[in-house]
Amino acid sequence: MALYVHKYGGTSVGSTERIRHVADNIVKARERGDSIVVVVSAMSGETNRLIALAQEIQANPDPRELDVLLATGEQITIALLCMALHEKGVPACSYTGGQVKILTDRSYNKARILNIDTNRIANDLARDKVVVVAGFQGITEDGDITTLGRGGSDTTAVALAAALKADECLIYTDVDGVYTTDPRVEPNARRLDRITFEEMLEMASLGSKVLQIRSVEFAGKYNVPLRVLSSFTEGPGTLISYEEENVEKPLISGIAFNRDEAKLTILGVPDRPGIAYKILGPIADANIEVDMIVQNIAQDGTTDFTFTVHRNDYRKALEILRSTCAELGAREVAGDDKIVKVSLVGVGMRSHAGIASKMFEALAREGINIQMISTSEIKISVVLNEKYLELAVRSLHEAFNLDQSSEAA
Amino acid sequence: MALYVHKYGGTSVGSTERIRHVADNIVKARERGDSIVVVVSAMSGETNRLIALAQEIQANPDPRELDVLLATGEQITIALLCMALHEKGVPACSYTGGQVKILTDRSYNKARILNIDTNRIANDLARDKVVVVAGFQGITEDGDITTLGRGGSDTTAVALAAALKADECLIYTDVDGVYTTDPRVEPNARRLDRITFEEMLEMASLGSKVLQIRSVEFAGKYNVPLRVLSSFTEGPGTLISYEEENVEKPLISGIAFNRDEAKLTILGVPDRPGIAYKILGPIADANIEVDMIVQNIAQDGTTDFTFTVHRNDYRKALEILRSTCAELGAREVAGDDKIVKVSLVGVGMRSHAGIASKMFEALAREGINIQMISTSEIKISVVLNEKYLELAVRSLHEAFNLDQSSEAA
To answer: Which residues are in the ACT domain (chains A, B) (predicted)?
Structure first.
């Protein structure tokens, strides 16, 4: 008998009507003979309601107490979903993170799972019950309530699937799978039947909000096949797993992009060892995360150094960089927050030359100027003026035949 | 250093503003040097919101899951109150019923407390922290969440006070104490400085909704002094404790009344042994609780048998009694749901004759007909036509000088 972990996000359980619909979905899966463990998020809106209450009292709520507060959101959903299952005659039992001992470290608001005690769950499954577990939350060794941070329910689902050695972890959401690119930008975007963990990580880190990075990392680490699918429409969704040797690998799986970045350059920096640290140290000290970093070869003893940050951090980073510029005796600082990062992602590119040149050719054909380039084993990213976003995505989608199924690519 | 358990009900924590006000109250108590454990209810309205959600899914929600759901209400309050205390610079730590191991039996929705593990609380108190505990909830030996039923937060507070050997358990509510009678009926009603557990039980069981009976029983059993006081206004409230030998005992502490009853009489019942069981057995089988029972001596081999039930059960009880009447060959059945029960309560009446006659005299003076009489060691109850309620209460209040302080009575 196959064991599946289902995860339903906030929108999927956003009302009692939708919770009943989720119960129907579980009933169908049971009729197929599956054993099911369900992980749920708080009803959409509930977490924000709780945070608003907290902030009426404390601008920066105490981290331990915030977790005690937020954990109630998922606890409400597990109880309501079990009631809906009982109403349909399905035996079901709910557990909070503390009750199934999702043991975490003590990092309130962003705790990491250390261990899961699967005894109670295994017992219930053996007695043909559906087990419903609150996502997003855990408990420390001392019995304190913790939460896992953004996307924590996905992490709970994957961790449970790993601990229970589930056949698949099904992430039910409001989209029906992972697409070659954002369908709002490229109407020809196509749902992928499958994608590798590594590709999904690159897609996720570039702003495809289908899955949180941590849960994909976790799934990859423990080799838990993940499937993203819609809780509102039928369909196979997208399977995220390791690449199989005998499957024809597409060159490119998709095109990701990110409009949330801004670019900063320090020009005419004396080219000395340790210069990168002197530039990025103060940025890191200000808790600003840096994404792309490009440094070109030096000319005349000076170099130009460019990096990107989240657009929200642009002003602050610019200020820091100006004072660094004076300290280092660099020539000047330039910045631009009207940029976009576009990336080709695909494990296939590992073994194929010419992807980059084909990409640059496609962009050149449209007269799009490339401001920065950065590459990894399975990704090529370029930074462009943001006005070119749609044009760039569509021309690349076409150039790599992404609207056709993988086999034909 | 004195240890106090504070309990704040739903109205007292009904908004973030009120929660801040509760925090102020705790700050003041700390400034007096008290060690404090706080028990809170769910914010007013929250429990009803949760029950409504449950009933959208199941007309009769699954008892286990209902407790998982309802327990979130108090969990929200403990977190918010701790935030409010932190905001005022007071170290505080919250605990759910499960976290401090308020161990209960498995009777979901109306669990009984079996044991409390006070280790964590004692540790926190030793480190000068305010400990905030979720009322109304506990946990079974298997780690399942339970709730204690109506008034459960009072029970939690009293049980904690008993387990911690607290000096007093302060029940903060929206009234400033226990009154000689309902001030809405008798404007001269006076707040009592103290009252005994036994008197309070009689008052509570007669509809004074200040405290739940179970918590008063519990406090009496473990000799925990209870104090009822207002969370909105300053004042000493009313202390509920055992009578002290050297305190001048008032004859009468108060006048309680109950408008929720209805009276049923079966007339001309053959006076045989076992007749009371034959009449009340079918009533009990229908889960109808009986309050007063009066049977007078038999005449001519038949007797009349009268009892009272909750007004909601009147129609059902009447129906049952009619079929019993036919079975037993009794003459007829009569009933009246326009009655009220008025009771004099006071430990002092134990040692004083003449209370009853003084009571009947006062009622006779106003031309009030007494339909039933029932007495206990510290209570005399009469059933009257409900139209006489206000008149009866006021004339008794005056006859026993209840508007004057105890010593003068």
So the answer is: 264-338, 344-409
Most confident of A148-152, A242-246, B390-394: B390-394
Question: What is the structure's pLDDT at B206?
Answer: 60
Report the C-alpha gap between B188 and B401 in whole angstroms: 10
CB-nearest partner of B68 from A65, A71, A94: A94
B170 and B37 together in one domain = yes
Do B181 and B189 contact (CB within 8 A), yes or no? yes
- Provide, as residue numbers in chain B, all residues whose Cβ is less than 8 Å from the Cβ of A69: 75-76, 79-80
Q: Is residue A75 part of a domain?
A: yes
List, as ranges, residues 127-166 from A with C-beta within 8 Å of B.
143-145
Chain A residues in contact with B45 by the CB 8 A cut-off are none
Residues A67 and A147: beta-carbon distance below 8 Å? yes
Residues of chain B with pLDDT under 50: 407-409
Total domains in chain B come to 2
Angular region, B203: left φ>0, alpha ψ -120 to 50, beta rest: alpha
Query: Residue B47 and residue B55: Cα distance in Å, rounded?
Result: 12
Evaluate if pTM is beyond 0.80: yes
**Residues 225-284 of chain A whose Cβ lies under 8 A from any Cβ of chain B:** none
Q: Strands of B302-310's sheet, edge to edge? A: B290-295, B302-310, B261-270, B332-336
ipTM: 0.80
Helix, strand or coil for residue A115? strand
Boundaries of domain holding B359: 245-409
Distance from CA of B72 to the nearest CA of A (A): 5
Question: How far is C-alpha A291 from the chain's CA centre?
Answer: 15
Task: State whether residue B121 sits within 8 Å of chain A by CB.
Answer: no
Give a yes or no: residue A155 inside a domain.
yes
Q: What is the CATH number of the domain that holds A155?
A: 3.40.1160.10
Residues B170 and B250 reside in one and the same domain: no
* pLDDT at position B319: 95
